[in-house]
Amino acid sequence: MSTPIGIDALLERERTHLHRLTPQEAAAALVEQNALLVDIRYAALRDRDGLIPGALVVERNELEWRMDPQGSHRSPETTDHDRLVIVVCNEGYASSLAARSLQALGLHRATDLIGGFQAWKAEGLTVSK
């Protein structure tokens, strides 16, 4: 049996496998690399704060099923293991673990947005209600 670690240590360990993006880098990747932004926030946060235009909304509990390029329940946007997928949560914590889960499914370029939706909004990038 392995020694248990806390969430902070787990998060730090998993982030060593990600090339996390700032809001500005993510915005550029959407245009320059045809990246797919995936918003995993729950509905109450989306209703309260708005959406990033063009983001695919997939709540966290459905993420692996909707993002698996080989899965029968996948979203039409997820047919390529090589596409850059940028996961967005509210503040950039859950998205790191979610991106690692997508990497385990073979989406080797999956990563997340540093600071999450709140950082995107704070940078003055486009948000719609």
Task: Calculate Rg over CA atoms.
Answer: 14 Å
For the residues shown, what is the average pLDDT? 96
Series of H and E elements = HHEHEHEHEH
Main sheet overview: 4 strands, parallel
What is the top-level CATH class? Alpha Beta
The number of helical segments is 6
Number of strands: 4
Structural classification = alpha/beta
> Helical amount among residues, as a percent range?
25-40%
Largest sheet, order of strands side by side? 2-1-3-4
**Low-confidence blocks of residues:** none
Protein name: Rhodanese-related sulfurtransferase
Organism: Streptacidiphilus jiangxiensis
Domain Rhodanese: 31-129
Pfam family, one: Rhodanese
Describe it:
The structure is a single chain. This protein is of the alpha/beta class and 129 residues long. The chain has one domain: Rhodanese-like domain (Oxidized Rhodanese, domain 1, 3-Layer(aba) Sandwich), CATH 3.40.250. The protein is 38% helix and 9% strand. The chain has helices spanning 7-15, 23-32, 43-49, 63-67, 94-104, 116-122; strands at 36-39, 56-57, 85-88, 111-112. The chain has a four-stranded parallel sheet, covered by helices on one side. Strand 1, helix 3 and strand 2 form a beta-alpha-beta unit. The chain starts with 6 loop residues before the first helix and ends in a 7-residue tail after the last helix.
